[in-house]
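Risk mitigation, structural track. In case the binding assays with cytidine-5'-triphosphate fail to produce interpretable data, a predicted complex structure has been prepared as a fallback.
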Amino acid sequence: MPFAGRHVVLGVSGGIACYKSCTLARQLTEDGAVVDVVLTASAAEFVRPVTFEALTGRPVLTSLWERDRALAHIGLAKQTDLAILAPATANVLARAAMGMADDLLTALLLARSGPVLAAPAMNDAMYAHPATRANMKTLAARGWQFIGPEIGPLAEGPSDRPGRMSEPDTILAAAARLLVTGGGGGGRLAGKTVVVTAGPTREHLDPVRVLTNPSSGRMGYALAAAAYARGAEVLLVTGPTELPLPLGVTAHRVETTAEMQRAVQALVKKAHVLIMAAAPADYRPATSAATKRPRRNGTLTLELEATPDILATLERPQPCVVVGFALEAGGDGVAKARQKLQDKALDFVILNDALEPGAGFEVATNRVTIIGKAGAPIELPLLSKRDVADKILDAVERALT
Ligand code: CTP
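Fallback model:
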């Protein structure tokens, strides 16, 4: 994960969205970051410092006047890899834009030259006010990045205008990318276009019945999120899944294998990397009824025909690192996967064992072996799908250079 071993300062200003900052502090800490929380006086009215201390395992700073901590704001401004301001109220944005330093948080922000990610949260009219717009413009011109606000219910009721703070997962995804890119469009996959496919496809027997498989799409979505965090432009071709779209990716939703093939073939023209993590249906009914087939007693025999093999038939107008997955069930998986690598002209094949506990479909973890055209296979331990995604992208990056 991009947060492991990184030092993050989480500035919390006083809005009701503070409760989400607790989740943020906890998640960053769980992901391996050292998190120092700085609360404004009004934030401390919403959530007591002890809550953040328990979540981060570190002292929380609230005032410029704490004994022995007189220069804490300077240390935190300079030594941290990233400052996240969540929630960023209209008031704190105004004070930061003015260059005021009348409390610990604004003093820290004024002393800081490294990246700042702010997640505004306020009443929709306050957000729309020209003063707030001007303040955000000023801060953006100084290199601050913003995530949200979003349209959704506010403390005072429903709203159809932006004001609600982004969810912690969204803020974390933006923070992960900012940590890698430094806000300057860097990152190891900066300037690269990565096409990722994910999820199952569905083939209709009739309007209400489908042939499909239990792929959840999690591996592909984790790859898309990880590639985005490394600075890539990510185009996600996704079959039907329940998953929320990862931040920053452009999604192309498809249903059938033929639709996925058309989307991949169109997008690969501008791709530097194609990762086929989807589990497209290999067969479809030879005929699909236009109306619902009535139930009849006795057996039903279906005639199936093969769907297109997307990888095997892929036309590659320019060099592109192509990664396929091989789901094998026992036997000599590595030999079968190597055969797939050759048959489908892949640069890498990611071998999953369908029979392995904790690996494959519908689980949050995976255990894979990365097999390249040359070199020994890289056998990975059981990892979260996000960590597997990062290992796969490490291999892809080596192939790109
Ligand atoms: N794939 C594809 N087009 C299909 C089916 C699969 O491009 N119609 C891709 C998958 O996304 C995966 C790779 O091919 O990256 C391997 O899929 P897998 O189902 O393991 O292999 P198959 O080639 O279908 O072979 P088999 O089912 O015989 O093992």
